[in-house]
Amino acid sequence: MINEETVVVDDKLELIDALQQLGVAYHFEEEIKHALDSIFSKLDGICMEMKDNAYAIALVFRLLRGHGFRVSQDIFDQFKDEKGSFKSNLSNRIKSLLNLYEASYLVVDGEDTLIEAQNFTIQHLNNFLSNSSHDSHKLRDYVANALEQPLEWRVERLHTRWFIDAYEKEEKMRPLLLEFAKLDFNVVQNTYKRELKEVSRWWSNLGLWEKLPFSRDRLAENYLWSIGCAFEPKHSTFRLAQTKANCLITAIDDVYDVYGSLDELELFTKAVDSPDVTQEDLNLFQDYPEIVRWSSMLLRLYNDLGTSKPEHQRGDVAKSIHCCMHHEGITEAAACKRIKELIYDCWKKLNGARRVDSAFNKNFTDIAMNVPRTARCFYIHGDGTIWDLTISPPLSPDVLVRLRLTSTRRCETHLVSPSSRSWLSETHLTLPAGNWL
Question: How many helices (H) and strands (E) does the chain have?
Fold first, then answer.
């Protein structure tokens, strides 16, 4: 259906959007690429056909930009009045506002129209939440979920779990597609369980945690991080390797930051230091590709935002927040606000670095985009790799909130405790009986 000539463009766009949010688009990568290539090549004519349809224009913009196509923000000029402001009649078209809101988060540097669109839609979507009746509860759920954080910043797999439930209530829901999404979710979930068993055996056989009992035993959290970066089954090797690397990095981080004595750290540094690194090698960091630079910068800033206070209290190195406080002579709250502004600016630059004609393949680009999404999930409410008791009253690990994909609103606030690793087996979806496919 995606590439059938008889299917109208609006239906193609909605189907592609549903496939992506249901987490099954990876099964149809070639078909989606062909469809978007075709739409982009005819974009001017398509926009003429969609004239005055803000919902469809915003959707085509979001999907094309999300796949790296260079689509101009001028596509939205038709929805502005003679003063250059967005027309007031858009304020009552909530689905159009919602799509325009999501599209605005693919902004790049210098795009004032998208910034205006973002401010305009946030204002009117908040008004909708304040004034709408309970009869529009399905639409309210979409709006509230979007305002909590935009689709562009969400961890894909966690959003998929929420969207499957939301899609099931849609009037235009495709039953076969919904059943396929549920089946695929459970199949992939079983893949995760097998991988977690494998890295758990590796970690146990390594015995590092027994030798360094003070370090964080965060195997499940480190594995969750790898899912956030690349959830598709084909990336199994990547997830296993990244989980193992992150476990070792966590242990080394604890030795350096908290528990190692000066003599021990000097010996450790000498053991791992390479004498072959030259100034020329260091200078190469300045020439990193933009997509790597801004993805890494966002990871750094999100980490600082979530870990700054506890690490500063124990005498760790200065974070970006404290450097900002010192450099600009401002309060910690003002510095945090400034860092959030920097984060937003970095997202603009990262969006600009995502191009369909990039020298990097799609897998690399997708992971680079997912790194800051995962970092945001882990650090937006504190340090997601430790128990942040400033979020909740002091509780034992066993009764702290688990990461349950069925709990969509709080799933990005707390992570699993060491004794709660059964979450992967607790997130299966209910499938209807009968012959599905």
Answer: 18, 0
